[in-house]
Description:
Layout: H1 2-21, E1 30-35, E2 40-47, E3 57-59, E4 73-82, E5 85-92, H2 103-117, E6 128-132, H3 139-143, H4 152-155, E7 161-162, E8 166-173, E9 180-187, E10 192-197, H5 209-224
Antiparallel strand pairs: 1-2, 1-4, 2-6, 3-10, 4-5, 4-7, 5-8, 8-9, 9-10
Amino acid sequence: MKKLYRAALLAAIGLVSLGTAQAAIYTGDLIVGFTTQSGNDAIYDLGAESSLFVGKTWDLSSVLTGYNLNNVSWGVIGDASVSGVDTAWTTTDSFIPPKVPNTATWGTINTATKSIYSNFGAAGLGQSVSIVSTDDNSWNKQTINPTLTTQYNNVYGNPNVTGLTSDSFYSVIANNSAPVLQGHFALDNTATLTFVPEPGTDVLAGAGLLTLIVSLRNQFRRQQA
Length: 225
């Protein structure tokens, strides 16, 4: 009897451990989320903010299969301690995001981002997850229709735009500094996401890149025409 009890206990512990192992640990990557506020949401790991460069693209066609890209709401968020400096990143729909006054406030943002990332089975660039839009940690509930005070929209705001358009991308240091526009993410009709840095940012360096930026922007506008 004792052996049976011990076996059952070990099995139960194993199941708990398995469930814990399935939740990826957030390490500061940027993530992009997509939702139509019904069905399933898609969330994708874009990699570290430091890996961004002019014209970087992500092919999300396999992730967004079945989505109407004209109606999908999407945005990019992330946060990390960079050389000891707590920093948040977010896209916004034509408005400047709030300042982050201190580490405590940054911590609430980080907690919400971690909750979203807990949907992933593994961490790292290129990982993706599909989750029902009514789940508390879905993109819809966290960033658009929150019901908990700890969800992303309630602690920092809505990072989303809707459809085939561009989304302004900001970095915000947790010392009450003004948010800094880093560039834009743009979604096109092939489900390709493109990053275009702002001239003068650390992401942008080297001769001739401004010309490339203009070219990319014009290409995106032609696709919308």
